[in-house]
Amino acid sequence: MSNTITIALDAMGGDNAPSEICAGAVEACKKFDDIEIVLTGNTERIKACSDLHPRIRIEHASEIIDPDEHPANAIRKKRDSSLRVAMEMVRRGDAQGCVSAGSTGAIVAGGVLVVGRIDGIDRPALGVPIPSMGGKIAFTLDVGATVRCKPENLLQFALMGNVYSRKILGVPNPEVKLLSNGSEDIKGDDTVLAARELMEARNTLNFGGYIEGNEIFFDKADVIVCDGFNGNIALKLGEGLIQGLRTMLTDEVKKSFMAKAGMAFLYPTVKRLLARFNYEKYGGTPLLGVKGAVLKAHGRSKRAAIVSAISAARRYIAEDGTAQINREI
Q: How confident is the model at residue 1 (pLDDT cuts 50, 70, 90)?
């Protein structure tokens, strides 16, 4: 079909590769009739997973990038790795986007070195949609791509996050806030202070000032901007908290018959609340600032999370997210 979207999927990336990656590809093709998927990786291992959908084909890749390898070196040296082959397809135009649950560092390095940066973007950013208590999505970037930022980098993150929130997440006029250690204007280090001034001067941004870490989950912003170091810590802290609450809930239910009886009423409600924060529902993490749709799926992704990541890539491509960011910059 003429409007088919082609997505390259790294079949060998992630803790559950290739079986769950391939299963997710099959389910995605059943769910979306306008996509075709190219699985990159070892042909024999991919074929051994399951019967593939007619709109799935395989691009053989003989190498795999391991999580403990130096990201940039691995991308440069392992030219026949499943991740690099997927990204080369995007660079050549054989695919409009790629998805991988592999090494975050290698995905960022490949996005810059293989796919290439958008003109006007100095450093890329990984953005993740974080669900808030009231149902709002706080699109947070950067969460790990660029650890040391200049004020101009944070401004570019704000502009890209604004576009993604409007065009992909459907927020008409997203409020953008800058993560800091207080709400007062005098808070923040020199980089944050300078970035705030740049954002305040940009009339295309609905800039709302600072946001503190304890407000991230409470509907205080549509877009949250930070450097990759602090963003990654905030993201992992949130993941750990949700996992801890789930474990505590299970332990309380198991303690005694009285606990079971007492929790029986609350358990469905708490379970629904915790389900709001399930990463499998919210798709992949887009690497913004590169010339194509590059999405990082969670390393523990199983088929449901892979379907969500493919869905996010599909939306980004359909809305021409790269061109939208290019125009904004």
A: very low
Tokens representing 143? 């969460």
Residue 199 and residue 81 share a domain: no
Q: Give yes or no: residues 190 and 244 share one domain.
A: yes
Looking only at the bridges linking them, the beta strands covering 35-41 and 56-60 are: parallel
With cut-offs at 50, 70 and 90, classify the pLDDT of residue 279. Answer: low
How many CB atoms sit inside 10 A of residue 241's CB?
Answer: 12
Burial of 310 (0-12, 13-18, 19+ CB in 10 A): buried
CB 94 within 8 A of CB 301: no
Single-letter code of the amino acid located at 29: C
* Tens-place pLDDT, residues 289-317: 999 999 999 999 999 999 999 999 999 99
- Same domain, residue pair 219 and 268: yes
Q: Does 253 share its domain with 180? A: yes
Report how many domains make up the chain. 2
pTM greater than 0.85 (yes/no) = yes
Does 296 lie in the same domain as 234?
A: no
Size of the chain in residues: 329
Tell me: do 219 and 89 sit in the same domain.
no
User: Do residues 200 and 207 make contact, with C-beta atoms less than 8 angstroms apart?
Assistant: yes
CA dihedral defined by 87, 88, 89, 91, rounded to 10 degrees?
Answer: 90
